[in-house]
Amino acid sequence: MVQYIEKYKRNIAVDMRKKGFPYSEIKNRLGLPKSTLSFWLKKIKLTEEQKKKINAERLKAIKISSEKRTVRTSRMIEDIRKSSATDIKEVSKKELWLMGVVLYWRERFLNGNESDLRKGVRFTSSDPYLIKLFLKWLQDVGQIKDEEIMFDIFIETGRKDSIGEVAAYWSDVTEFPESSFTRVYYLRHKTKRKRGGRKIANKTKFGLLRIRVRSSSMLARQIAGWVRGMIEYYWK
Length: 236
Fold this sequence. Notes:
By secondary structure, the protein is of the alpha+beta class. The chain has helices at about 1-20, 25-30, 35-40, 50-85, 95-110, 130-140, 165-175, 215-235; strands at about 120-125, 150-155, 185, 190-195, 200, 210-215. It is elongated and about 95 Å long. It starts with a helix and ends with a helix.
């Protein structure tokens, strides 16, 4: 009986292979190990057309499998993002203070340029949420009034005609009137410019926005002191 079933499966496997079915499909349909199929079917020759068909089916299966993995990964990432977002309940003033100090540390003190402090507090980004965060930090922690805050726009030369749209965009982000965005600097290169020895990517069509605070060299030095305090605390 066992030999009869084995012979029956072998005949089906041979017939399927002659019709151009790939090993994977024969294996799945008959529930046989690939080693058995290789032994049974090794002498069967396929036509070029059958080989092309099998290869096309294999590529199709790979594509479908890849798309499924991509969908699963995207769903997992989105679930993680949603779950992580609920971890942020409330941000205290002290937490906001630390966030702003570290943000400014990353933005302004990478090069250790002490002379930069004399120019006062300046922060540049193309990310609207970082701009919002630093403005909130200035207003809530630094107690800086709106009339003390100024803005500079940096945008590529090719977008001169859209400066009105750009100013309106940053006005919407910052909730400052469009009249606050009259200082515009045009960049020669589309992707980057130099500032203090660093290259800055111009990633969006709205360019970069620089926040400046009037007469704020003392505040800049105070921030530098906070940064130094963090360094000494963790790495004495």
